[in-house]
Amino acid sequence: MEGQLSQKYFVLDTNVILFDPLSIYKFAKNFVYIPLIVIEEVDRFKKDQNENGRNARHFARIVDELRANGHLPDGVDLGNGGKLIISVDSRVKDPGKYPIDLTINDNLILSSALALRDDGKNTILITKDINLRLKADVLGVAAEDFGTKDVTLDELYPGHRFFEVSAERLLEYEKERFLSLTNEECLAIHPNEYLTVIEKGNDRKRALGRYSKAKMGVVPLIPVREGVWGIYPKNTEQQFAFDALLNDEVKLVTLVGKAGTGKTLLAIAAGLEMTIGQEKYSRLLVSRPVQPMGKDLGFLPGDVNEKLGPWMQPIFDNMDFLFGQHKNTNASWESLINEGLLHVEPLTYIRGRSIPQQYLIVDEAQNLSPHEVKTIVTRAGEGTKVVLTGDCEQIDSPYLDSVNNGLAYVVERLKTESIIAHTTLKMGERSALAEIATKLL
Asked: Is-contact 145 133, C-beta < 8 A?
């Protein structure tokens, strides 16, 4: 019994495999148990052209290759010390003991976990379904979400901080436009982290800056006195955001904020400025995930562009506002699209491409999985800048939450890289009504 309990049996739900087809390799030297009903559910997704379909097909290929290692019901070696078992759904020996309807697929998966547990095995059900985890807990089966949650949303790297210095050092920074930092101070700050430099004992005296790892000191923000495509920063957070968006040294920018903080508007304004105004990029490419992609698009009338219109409308709304604000151009965003300088498209069409010398904005990036974000960022060719914006509290995907989505994943994983910059925007600027609704409704 002691040997059985030391090695764990992880029972995987369908949503875990659809979230990450490589999940079977992430449970160390333990057993990974997949009930047959899970394989049937995964099979239903294999023809889909979205991420679920791709993951279902990828998983099928992996398992087909593993069959060469042995008989799946007996367990096949995964190469990392663990074993994969795919077996007919296990039924509990005493159905009356557990009042669950076994005609429901989720309950069949739970029944397999119960049967393994009753057989004396150290069993853990892995599922991204909150209700299934609740049912498992009621019936005494250990259940966990899939994916390591390194931080809570409140602990997510904000991208900026207050930095106290003496009055002499603050004066030096204001005069020299550079503040050298000690080795100890540099180790405590992330590359391109934004700083509100304040005088000790007098926080009314302050200056803004960005930590430059290359220079080992604080440098001033890029000035935007004349605005960016007609937009002026309305608060400190937006000043930080514009600096990251306009900085040629930064190749990936992440902006996280609730509705109305201006993250999408700032990103598009900066993209237009860098592409059309300064001509540093060949094209501005704006994209966003179409979450209900498959079924919902089919019911909308018209050709592809007409079908995509409702999903891309928030981008067009921002474009209309920006071109209304910008008085130094007679062009319209439609004419820029016709000239090839601006392109707006769903993320579905980005997979498999190489995108060089472009300013790429991905809006609503919180609805992407870590794997999808990796796929997108790796599309960036030479000279391309990628901007990811989103609100980690507004998740539309059933398999993601506020801390395991692709946007939060990028923020935490890449915060120590010198070509990455991040800013969290908390102050709503859309309108007084929008700010009240965000806080109280």
From this structure: yes
Domains of the chain, first to last = 2-144 (3.40.50.1010), 149-220 (2.30.130), 231-440 (3.40.50.300)
- Write phi, then psi, for 210 (nearest 5 degrees): -130, 135
Q: Which amino acid is at 317?
A: D
Q: How many residues appear in the chain? A: 441
- The helix (H) or strand (E) run that includes residue 197 is strand 194-199
The tens place of each residue's pLDDT in the chain, 441 residues long, gives 444 457 899 999 999 999 889 999 999 899 999 999 999 999 999 988 778 888 999 999 999 999 988 999 999 999 889 999 999 877 766 666 777 778 888 999 999 999 999 889 999 999 999 899 999 999 999 999 987 655 667 889 999 999 999 999 999 999 999 999 999 999 999 999 999 999 998 888 999 999 999 999 999 999 998 899 889 999 999 999 999 999 999 999 999 999 889 999 999 999 999 999 999 999 999 988 865 433 444 444 554 455 455 656 778 788 788 877 665 666 677 777 777 788 887 777 676 678 899 999 999 999 988 888 988 898 888 999 999 999 998 888 777 878 888 999 999 999 999 999 999 999 887 777 777 776 776
Cβ atoms within 10 Å, residue 118: 17
